[in-house]
User: Fold this.
Amino acid sequence: MAKNSNRPPFLPNEPRLVTFVVYDEYQPLDIAGPMQVFALANREMSSPAYTLITVSEVPGRVRASAGPDIVVDADLKTLDQADTIVVPGGTGVERACASRTLTSSISGSQATARRLCSVCTGAFLLAAAGVLDDRRATTHWEKCDALRSRYPKIRVEESPIFVNDGNVWTSAGVTAGIDMALALVEEDHGYRVAASVAKKLVVYLRRPGGQAQFSETLVMQEKAGAAEFSPLMAKVSAALHKTWSVEELASAAGQTSRTFQRRFRLAMGCSPFVAVQELRLSRARIMLETTTSGTAIIADRCGFASEEQMRRAFQRKFGLPPSAFRSFFGKHG
Assistant:
């Protein structure tokens, strides 16, 4: 399906229409979080930047998966005027995917909407509408395999908290919807407005979309057979300032270098170098978030050969250098 680059016919000084698509048994937090981001952005502007409405197949009362019902403003025809469309997840998403009226309305909106977005399992509804075909996308990590299996045309990425591919944005569970909405506001109105909204919500300015949904170090530890190397990883973690060559690791494990590398990869799913690097990055990240130590000191204590080596590793892993990471997540960020 062709990717849309059209922009809706709004004048620059008119509020952008943000529509939230709801259905029976939707997850209310998937809407409340992003909606509050846009509402607070309005307060930062000299005039409202966004008009926020909810839409459904039949306007009126719609049941949530938890908490009070919602009274919906308009029907699906309103999607034709939408600048940004946000689709939540929820226990009712399977029934929503089976609605031809709903999926065809979302599919048709690709020709007019500037952005189509989903939170959590809302990605399944975008997928059912054909919006995610031949695109990169994410959803809650527990549902990534199901999304990949059901819709093989989608390039599912289970690690990022949100993914932007063209004019389509998909995000992971609940709080990731807030991160995505902050990124949308920053795209529209810049860093200052997004930062002010984040401060009012008492959240980080943003977590980069590439930040993992969960700790990759923890995932390694949970792999079958990883228990064999848990004592070694604990030993490494307690002395990250050391070099920890493959030979040193093999010796500490009481194995030959060749045997160690083979067994380690089978048990942990990665090379010894990658595992140690993950421990170094995890420790450095925590120090950047919770201390005021300089990056040179952090690099040394975490075992990086230099501050520059740590900077490059951070850039590859998180999509931004340590200084920017600290400004987003740090104690005084």
